[in-house]
Amino acid sequence: MRFSVWPNPTQSFAEMLEIARHAESTGWDGLWLADHFMPDAADTSAPWPEAWTTLAALAAGVPRIRIGTLVTGNTYRHPAVLAKMAATVDHISQGRAVLGLGAGWQVNEHEQYGIHYGTVGERLARLEEACQVIKGLFTEKSASFDGKHYQLTDASLEPKPLQSPLPLLIGGGGEKVTLRIAARFADEWNVWGDVETLRRKMKILDEHCAKVGRDPSAIQRSAVALLFLSDDEAFVAGMRDRDIGRPKIVGNAKEVREIVQAYRDSGVDELIVPDFTLGAMPQKLATLDRFIEEVGAPLR
User: Fold this and answer.
1) Distance of CA 152 to CAs 6, 75, 80, 160, 279, Å?
2) Do residues 182 and 189 touch, judged by C-beta distance below 8 A?
3) Which of 255, 245, 237, 246 is nearest to 294 (CA)?
4) Which class for 100: exposed (0-12), middle (13-18), buried (19 or more C-beta within 10 A)?
5) Residue 281 host element (H or E)
């Protein structure tokens, strides 16, 4: 099982680099960045560096761990441009990039930046076409595509990614369409969820794979949940009972290890830990260290 860190996107590049280098030196497997331009809130003034340029810099400065987006909103960039960006980061990283892609959902950044949003159905249709555009550019000498939303005419992409394939991760848990798209095109798939949610959605993903004639084992599965790791019994009890609107992993090291083992036993290949709930930098790094030493290492 792999373990990766998801830094809060409002941190400065210096903080991102510190977290990435610390994760690299302490045995974590990857680092993921949210591809948004602003908070999903009424006040959008918080600093929010752009994800792909940050990844390129991290790729040059951190030599081992995998790096990727969790996930890129397909609405933000033409998929041919995105494919070029991802291939470039793959070369900068010497073959460690993952292209995480989703349909796009955050309304305020579309409104502020004048980016077409569209209906859920339209965004999912664009995502399905984008997967075909990206896969074609990554694998074909010249790619042509005539879709409703995207068109290519003998399009080249050079240099090709170093990885063959550069992993395409589809993010999202929509059971009728998103998981069908993942079954067709994804090398990896990610969703927020507890163990029960992951089991249910992976079963549906496997069913979609059967319908399109694809081996389910060809798709790596990853999960995200907020971490609350503490020996303070009162704090742990309070967090267990609190509805925070996101899946969470709560307990002391032994309890957290049992929960993470259940993720692994259910078929999760990678657990991604956001640092959003881990406090300021010294405490954050200490909690990440404790997790990887006391939870991650025994479950690899």
Assistant:
1) 34, 17, 8, 17, 46
2) yes
3) 255
4) buried
5) helix 281-291
Peptide bond into 79 cis (omega under 30): no
Residue carrying structure tokens 């879709």: 147
Residue 89, amino acid: V
Query: What's the whole-model pTM score?
Result: 0.97
Tokens for 230, please give them.
């503490």
pLDDT tens figures, 8-21 = 999 999 999 999 99
| Contact status, residue 128 vs residue 181, Cβ threshold 8 Å | yes
Q: How many Å apart are CA 238 and CA 242, to the nearest integer? A: 6
* Alpha-carbon span 181 to 132, nearest angstrom: 10
> Per-residue DSSP letters for 185-213?
H-SEEEEE--HHHHHHHHHHHHHHHHHHT
Count Cα neighbours of 165 within 13 Å in the Cβ-side half-sphere: 18
Taking the C-alpha atoms of residue 108 and residue 254, their distance in angstroms, rounded to an integer, is: 41
Q: Where are the domains of the chain?
A: 2-171, 225-300
Quick: pLDDT tens for 174-200. Answer: 999 999 999 999 999 999 999 999 999
Tell me, what amino acid is at 299?
A: L
CATH class belonging to 2-171 = alpha beta
Q: Give the pair of three-digit tokens for residue 126.
A: 């664009």
User: Is residue 239 within 8 Å of residue 228, measured between CB atoms?
Assistant: yes
